[in-house]
Amino acid sequence: MKALTYGNVTNSMNNKFKMAALAALLSAVVLLNGCGKAEATKTEGKIVEENTEKVIPIPVEVSVVQKGSISSNYTTTAVLEAKEEAFVVGRASGIIEQIMVEEGDYVKKGQILAKLEPERYELNLRRAQADMTGIEKELAKINKVYHQKLVSDDTYDKITAQYESAKATLALAKLDLKEATIVAPISGYIAERNAKVGNLTESFQRERMFHIVQQKELYGIVYLPEKELSKVHKDQKARLIVTALNDAEINAFVERISPVIDSKTGTFKVTLRVPNKDKKLMSGMFTQVSLNYNTRDNATLLPRKAMLAMDDTVNVFVVDDKGIASKITIKTGYQEGKYVEVTEGLSGNETVVITGHQNLKDNAFVNIVNG
Question: Which CATH number is 228's domain given?
Answer without folding.
Answer: 2.40.30.170
